Amino acid sequence: MAFAGQQKKGMGLLILFLFLGAAFGSILTAIFNLFVPSGPLADIFLTHVTVGSSGPLTLKLILVDITVGTSVHINLLNLLGMVLGYYIYRNS
After folding, report:
1. What domain range is 77 assigned to?
2. Could you give the CA distance from residue 91 to residue 72 in angstroms, rounded to a whole number?
3. Contacting residues for 57 by C-beta, under 8 A, at least 6 apart
4. What is the DSSP string of 49-86?
5. Which of 20, 25, 37, 80 has the smallest C-beta neighbourhood within 10 Å, fewest atoms?
6. Are 49 and 73 in contact (CB under 8 A)?
7. Quick check: is 61 in a domain?
8. Which stretches are transmembrane (predicted)?
C-alpha cells in the first residue's frame, strides 16, 4: 500500500536494479580476481555455481536451424551486488 507522497515502484524497476547489482558484482569479481592471490579468501568469493543448460539446444528444421543456450554463473560477489541493488531500490 502506497502512502501519501510515495509512488508505487514497478516490477521492471526492481529487475533493472537487480540486474545492475549483478553487473556491479561481476565487475567486483573481475577486480577481486586480479588483486587477490589464490587461497581460502579467493575460494570463498570466486567460487561460482552455474545455472542453466549444460549445452546448447538445437532445433533442426527443414528451412532453418535454431540453436539456443543460456547459463548464468553466480558467485558471492554477484549476490552481494544484487542485495545492494535491492537495497537501493527499496530506499529510492
Report:
1. 11-91
2. 28
3. 67, 68, 69
4. EEEE-SS-EEEE-SS-EEEE--EEEE-HHHHHHHHHHH
5. 37
6. yes
7. yes
8. 12-36, 66-89
CB atoms under 10 Å from CB of 82, counted, come to 20
CA angle 82, 88, 92 (to 5 degrees): 150
Number of domains in the chain: 1
- Residue 22 amino acid letter: A
Q: Which pTM does this prediction carry? A: 0.72
Q: Where does the pLDDT of residue 20 fall: very low under 50, low under 70, confident under 90, or very high at 90 and above?
A: very high
Alpha carbon of residue 58 to chain centroid: 25
Tell me the per-residue pLDDT of 68-79, one tens digit each, with 9 for 90 and over.
Answer: 888 888 889 999
Instruction: Indicate whether 31 belongs to any domain.
Output: yes
Q: Is residue 1 part of a domain?
A: no
pLDDT, tens digit, 9 for 90 and up, residues 60-69 = 988 999 998 8
Range 2-8 average pLDDT: 55
Q: For residue 2, tell me if it sits in a domain.
A: no
